[in-house]
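Lab channel / #folding
Pinned by the channel admin:
"Please post every new chain as: sequence first, then the structure tokens as a reply. Keep commentary short and put observations after the output so the thread stays searchable."

First post following the new format, from NK:
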Amino acid sequence: MQVADNMAVSIHYTLTNDEGEVIDSSIGNEPLVYLHGNGNIISGLEQALLGKSVGEQFTVRIAAADAYGELMQDRVQVIPREMFEGVDVLEVGMQFHADVSEGPGVVTIVAINGDEVTIDGNHPLAGVPLTFDIEVLEIRPASAEEMDHGHVHGPNGHHH
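Reply from TO:
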């Protein structure tokens, strides 16, 4: 069986940046299980997994555009401190839910200069090419319910 659309795929992965620093890994934890062809994972990784079989191990470098997108300068804004009403202490690195150009999203404080706060609505990995070390562990046809919901359900049903 090979990875294809509407298959539930289980993988172990280690994600690194170009400096070789580990950003995330499933090793030592539960594998990542996703529904192939439904946009549950970044597009470049989904494309790299297409046609792979159980037991295959490979390394793939995903360009930023096919990962979390390019860094978009229009998502960096300076706003007045008063926009954070009810928050007593602001620090660089804090994240907040906010309405961004695509709808609900997360912004990160990247600078504070007096009463001016610079926020960044880009994904923290935007503009970063990513390298994945992958091992394909399991492939099975998705259930009708999983396909209807657009994601894989856990061993005891779905957990919405």
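NK: The domain at 7-68+126-149 is CATH 3.10.50.40 (Chitinase A; domain 3).
TO: also worth noting, Residues 156-160 have pLDDT under 50 and may be disordered.
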